[in-house]
Specification:
This protein is an alpha/beta fold. It is 30% helix and 29% strand. It contains 15 helices and 25 strands. The strands form six sheets. The chain has an eight-stranded parallel β-barrel, surrounded by six helices. A six-stranded antiparallel beta sheet has the order 16-19-20-25-22-23, covered by helices on one side. It has a four-stranded antiparallel beta sheet with strand order 17-18-21-24, with no helix packed on it. The relative contact order is 0.10.
């Protein structure tokens, strides 16, 4: 159905928010370690999957896609909401498709996250309504270094900001009316992978005038006060004694200028949306491929190098997230692991997701992870045809979710990933008073690799008890020498599963499955959960 906007919409949004307790909606609780998502008063672990860009545009797609995804142990589906779809005629809104998706998600016991494809999606502006696309005077474009208008809306378009913010606020107001009591939709992404694509920065007349003006003293002051949380890249460029953009930010002036303008725009959109319905809101970042320069990737997005510009300019945002498609997954997610930023990966490569999920939840303390194109996945094997699938990983993590969330809050989780082409053949993590050394699974006695990939998550539940989920690894245990000089031994290892809230022993591992009591030997291609009990005893004197 179509709804016409009227002058009382924004006032109604504000009044509605004033009468609604913040405790009634999902929220992000931040900490020095990052943060957690709270739903209905309890921490919630998102086992997510993002739909392809063209997989949520009709009501019928919900009927076919969501029941199948619900069988994958996914609990939250990330779905695009296109501006052009909900406001095909200026001032008239249609939410019938989104309402149907919410209804079907409830039937399938799934949560949703809305991805607002507003003024920008992957840097470009192709999801805006046709009435906006055709009026370049009212809705100005960014201009290239060669003087050509781009298919990218300028961040400085007054009418663009007004219309985007209004559409988003109406969406959030409708969502509040539709979903406040049941909270099917947990949070909202504001825009998508924003940034200027092209050399340097926007060269429109308005942007040139602003760039030629002094850097706003308020921005310099806020950044100066936040110096302790600077990235190394921003620290290397920032000069608080300067006046012009190049004087203050050096070679990074163009990218920081664009980051500031995108952040100002998004702050206005998010702030208005939160007045309507204060769900958690975030932005995602398209990260550079190896050797890419700013402008080859969207320049001015929430990139970790200059993320502090967003943090001081857009306080309405609750956290910042990386979309990670490149092989160095651990590096990029760790760049978003800093005090006060709840870690969430909204887009990840589907093929490597079963392994990277263990690292995200265990090592980075993520409250959520989401491979892209989840609807394309078959229920059994991984997308590359071998090894565990993300549905297998999610099944294990769902069983462990309560203990995992508790352990994340106390810093009692670790995780690692190994590949046959990794620079190291073994990796070690420390937890409690023990070291866990992992290598890829090999046959005996030929020592032939049984898998190309392996990963695990370790959760400490008692001083000597650990739950380990993973596949493709052999794990050795040692006493941490920084704790004491004791020897470490395996008291017992059990493969376990959970039923009705109770842990059941599937089998007790010994002999070849523990390398005669010396290691945990995981299945090379299947995900299992293991309960490992260790012990420490006095060290035998060295024989000279």
């Amino acid at each position: 159905m179509l709804k016409s906007i009227h002058s009382g919409v924004l006032a109604g949004c504000i009044l509605g928010a004033m009468t609604m307790s913040a405790s009634e909606v999902p929220t992000i609780v931040k900490s020095a370690a990052g943060g957690q998502l709270i739903v209905n008063g309890k921490p919630f672990l998102i086992l997510g999957g993002e739909l392809g860009n063209s997989s949520a545009g009709t009501a019928a797609q919900a009927d076919s896609v969501l029941p199948r995804i619900a069988q994958m142990h996914v609990n939250t589906v990330l779905m695009p909401v296109a501006w052009e779809q909900i406001e095909p005629v200026e001032g008239k809104f249609d939410f019938s498709i989104q309402d149907h998706w919410i209804d079907v998600a409830r039937e399938q016991h799934l949560h949703l996250m809305f991805l607002w494809f507003g003024s920008w999606k992957n840097g470009f502006s192709n999801y805006v309504p046709s009435w906006l696309k055709q009026d370049t005077k009212r809705f100005p474009r960014a201009v290239s270094a060669d003087g050509y208008e781009l298919e990218i809306l300028s961040t400085l378009g007054t009418e663009t900001l007004k219309c985007d913010a209004q559409a988003f606020s109406v969406l959030m107001r409708h969502l509040r009316e539709k979903d406040r009591d049941q909270q099917t939709v947990l949070m909202v992404q504001v825009e998508n992978e924003v940034g200027y694509l092209g050399r340097g920065r926007d060269r429109s007349a308005a942007a040139n005038r602003l760039f030629a003006s002094p850097v706003p003293p308020e921005l310099i002051h806020k950044l100066q006060n936040a110096r302790n949380s600077f990235s190394p890249e921003l620290r290397a460029h920032f000069k608080s004694t300067g006046t012009t953009w190049p004087e203050v930010f050096g070679d990074a002036a163009d990218e920081v200028f664009m980051a500031w303008n995108y952040a100002r725009f998004i702050q206005t959109v998010a702030e208005g949306g939160k007045q309507a319905y204060p769900l958690p809101m975030y932005v995602n970042c398209q990260l550079p491929a190896p050797a890419e320069r700013a402008g080859e990737y969207p320049s001015g997005g929430p990139h970790p190098y200059y993320l502090e510009v967003y943090r001081v300019t857009a306080p309405a945002l609750d956290f910042y997230s990386p979309d990670i498609y490149w092989p160095n997954f651990e590096y990029w997610i760790d760049r978003y692991k800093f005090s006060g930023n709840a870690v969430f990966v909204p887009e990840a490569r589907l093929e490597s997701a079963p392994y990277n999920a263990f690292y995200a939840y265990g090592e980075a303390g993520a409250f959520g992870f989401s491979p892209f194109g989840i609807e394309s996945l078959q229920l059994s094997p991984n997308a590359n045809g071998s090894g565990p699938g993300i549905n297998d990983v999610y099944a294990a993590l769902s069983s462990m979710s309560d203990m995992l969330l508790s352990a994340q809050a106390s810093g009692s989780t670790r995780g690692l990933v190994l590949h046959s082409n990794s620079p190291r053949t073994a990796q070690t993590v420390a937890l409690g008073d023990y070291l866990f050394e992992a290598t890829l699974s090999r046959s005996w006695p030929t020592k032939t690799l049984l898998t190309e990939d392996g990963a695990m998550i370790v959760v400490q539940t008692n001083p000597n008890e650990f739950y380990i989920a993973g596949s493709g690894l052999s794990v050795s245990f040692f006493r941490d020498p920084d704790t004491d000089n004791k020897l470490c031994g395996i008291a017992n290892i059990e493969e376990v599963s959970r039923s009705g809230g109770e842990w059941l022993t599937v089998r007790r591992l010994n002999g070849d499955q523990t390398n005669q009591g010396r290691q945990l030997s995981m299945s090379p291609h299947e995900v299992h959960i293991y309960r490992v009990v260790l012990y420490a005893t006095g060290r035998t004197p060295r024989i000279e």
